[in-house]
Design goal:
single chain, about 150 residues, alpha/beta
């Protein structure tokens, strides 16, 4: 009995220490982390990228398609080309809502240890007068043989 209770609490403790937390960040922290080399994944749709541009250097990997569907395995495979589970990653969308789900998926189901969610998304970035890059320039930085 004592051994099973101990095992239960040990398993519970390990579960909490292994599970990474999603950290909400503001645009100043986004700029700092980006300058330090942490990859930024823009999960918006292609039409959103065209309409408003992107944070320079962002990797463009749509999370929810135009029909509202999510293909977690395909999306995760593309994310893994950008950052491994042990590397920090920043996730950004238009307003910060979609990134909550994407960030939680990376942290809780895909095992990513450091996931940063940009509060306010690209809207906050632009509202502060921070620069964006046209999507055509960003697409030139896509890895060969991939679709961004």
């Amino acid at each position: 009995m004592v051994r099973s209770v101990f095992s239960f609490f040990l398993a519970l403790l390990l579960a909490f220490t292994v599970r990474a937390e999603v950290v909400d960040i503001d645009t100043a922290e986004l700029a700092r982390l980006r300058a330090a080399g942490v990859p930024v994944i823009d999960i918006r749709t292609a039409s959103e990228w065209r309409d408003s541009g992107v944070v320079e250097g962002s990797k463009l990997i749509t999370y929810v398609d135009d029909r509202g569907r999510i293909d977690h395995p395909a999306w995760l495979a593309k994310v893994q080309e950008v950052a491994t589970r042990n590397q920090p990653v920043i996730v950004i969308c238009r307003s910060g809502n979609r990134t909550k789900a994407a960030s939680q998926f990376l942290s809780e189901q895909a095992g990513y240890q450091s996931v940063y969610n940009v509060k306010g998304g690209l809207r906050a970035w632009v509202n502060e007068g921070r620069p964006v890059t046209p999507v055509a320039s960003a697409l030139l930085n896509c890895p060969a043989n991939t679709r961004c």
